[in-house]
Known about the structure:
The complex is a heterodimer of chains A (397) and B (338).
Chain A: H1 5-9, H2 20-52, H3 84-117, H4 122-136, H5 140-154, E1 162-164, E2 168-171, E3 174-177, E4 179-182, H6 186-214, H7 220-238, E5 243-246, E6 249-250, E7 255-256, E8 259-261, H8 263-290, H9 293-301, H10 306-336, H11 348-360, H12 363-392
Antiparallel strand pairs in A: 1-2, 2-3, 3-8, 4-5, 6-7
Chain B: H1 2-14, H2 18-21, H3 25-32, E1 35-39, E2 48-49, E3 55-56, H4 58-71, E4 77-81, H5 87-92, E5 98-99, H6 107-110, E6 115-117, E7 122-124, E8 126-131, E9 145-150, H7 154-165, E10 170-175, H8 178-186, E11 192-196, H9 197-204, E12 213-215, E13 223-225, E14 228-230, H10 234-252, H11 260-263, H12 269-275, H13 281-284, H14 291-298, H15 302-309
Parallel strand pairs in B: 1-4, 1-5, 9-10, 9-11
Antiparallel strand pairs in B: 2-3, 6-14, 7-13, 8-11, 8-12
Helix pairs in contact in B: 4-10, 4-14
Amino acid sequence: MAIDLPTASRPPRVAFYNDPKIRSVAYQLALCVVIGVLVYGAATNAIDNLERAHIASGFGFWNENAGFDISQTLIQYSSQASTYGRAFWVGLLNTLLVAGLGVVFATVIGFIVGIARLSSNWLVAKAATGYVEIIRNLPLLLQLLFWYNAVLKALPAVRDSIHILGGTVVNNRGVFLPRPIFKSGFGIVEITIAAGILASIVFYLWARRRQERTGEQAPLLWTALALIVGLPLIVAAAMGFPVAFDFPEAGRFNISGGIEVLPEFAALLFGLSIYTAAFIAEVVRAGILSVSRGQTEAAYSLGLRPGPTLRLIVVPQAMRVIIPPLTSQYLNLTKNSSLAVAIGYPDLVQVFTGTVLNQTGQAVEVVAITMLVYLTISLVTSLLMNLYNSRMALVER
Amino acid sequence: MKRSLTMLIAAAVMGLAASSVSAQTLNAVKSRGMLNCGANGTLAGFGLPDAQGKWTGLDVDVCRAIAAAIFNDATKVKFVPLSAKDRFTALQSGEVDVLVRNTTWTSSRDTSLGLNFTGVDYYDGQGFMVRKALKVNSALELGDASVCVQQGTTTELNLADYFRGHNMKLKTVTFATANEAVKAYDSGRCDAYTTDASGLYAERLRLANPDDHIVLPEIISKEPLGPAVRHGDDQWFDVVKWVLFAMVNAEELNITSKNIDEMVKSTNPAIKRFVGTEGNYGEQLGLTKDWAVRIVKLVGNYGEVFDRNVGAGSPLKIDRGLNKLWNKGGIQYAPPIR
């Protein structure tokens, strides 16, 4: 049984086309070439066809005058002076507004409902279950149409507007809030607010260190409220309230003045928030259930009450399970906001892929830009959530 | 071969059928045995399927006339309902052969959108509808009003222009389809609804209480509505153009679906050229000698089609106005067949 060392150390000779390494590289190269050819073919074919049909192409339309009106504009926009590019930004900001607020509301409602589903109170738990099962099993588009028509039908006409104390007006054209106008001297109030926030942070850091040292807790919430709200109020009162209000007033047809909240916006925000909240509630429930029961029991045996147990022991551990699927829900909400087109809210898809595309006829460019924008928003959202996730992740020592 | 294969795959990927964009639409339609026609689908009088799925309307009948001229069968049309927003993309990509969807002929649509308008089947203009209770008698009193409008239309632009031109403030609420815009107007979201005057009369019939609404007298724009085809296929452009001209010429020559059989025997030279007993004008178009006879027999002349869809013989009862023939006080006019 002599071992022939030299032959054993040399690998068996195989043809190069049978070498698994070379093979896998060759396959991947071939795949890349096929994909490249397909993309190239599709692009040149599209360009050929556009040229043959004499359809305009390129991005020259960006600086052309738009000429149409948009109902909600967060930045200066007018049909006579603004370009298609400006219309794009108006639409994008409207999308970001509804998506941003929707994420906040959906998270708050979702957490409340998710925790309520696990409540020991039978009625609360069943009500939360009913909410989740009904809302998440109906198509979103249907819900949006329902809320929009429900909102419109429930609200009175302009002449029968509901006037709420403080100058707010509600009718089927929207909700009109008084718009504050800051007079000179308000800057000092603003400085006081900033100082209050800074002082609160300092107080928070001091209180935390003291608690770690002595175990004593400080009334954080009340101190912060007094510093951020109370102090500026006192300063403003001392200066005789340098704020005026632009109250909404009834005109010939509409309410003018004030801050206007469109019913389309309200319906979309409401619909998106409660729809996504149903999914977030399930994510939260799953996260909480993933924390072992022993954690809660240990907390109780240390003398913690149910509230602090949930807040300090269960939720921080559940967050590790919650955050990744929560990110998907945020992305879904942002993308679902494009259903705005059905109820007349001027989001990016309605303004840009709708009116601008139709007027310029440049489908390829407009759709490509819109896809790029949604991709960017989604990737940025994921990036932020992943950063948050890595902060929350279990630190192993 | 390799290039054509990649082209084929690429075309499938892009959803742009390369062949249908090229110059052979007539042959493609013939070999398919069916005309794909982009139509409205929700506008009474122009394009609307009834409960049995049978389409009626002025635009719809123009499509039927094209099918009649090609196949001698006015039923060989597949109607594709399109929203104002999607209609041009559908035509550009070859999903439909012809777009007859109350579409306004404008210079940019004729050029940079890659379309060719073949004529005008209805001379229209934009108007406003309001509630009677508002006591508004003129569009000039609409300053600061909320106006519901459909997206992707010349209407949307004219509206902004008109209010800007008269220094009036405007609140537009834009919807993707006319259905949604009308529903929002009906529920009180807007003070006024604006679209082409013909559309206002048609939509008013669908409101909860049609009698509570009036159409204001102002016509704020020119809206020549007509069929459109893609750039780059002159033969198909000619076919669609002359089908509409044949309908107008038939009315001018007093040829109707009732008397067409006698007219075929006529000795009047203009009528002989029309019915194909003299000359070979149909063949020059790539059709048959009796192409115009088929149109009139199976669909009718322009007057008949107008009357039964939007005129006195229809629920809309729109006055012919500008759409009368040129020799009867209107501006409908067709070049002669010769």
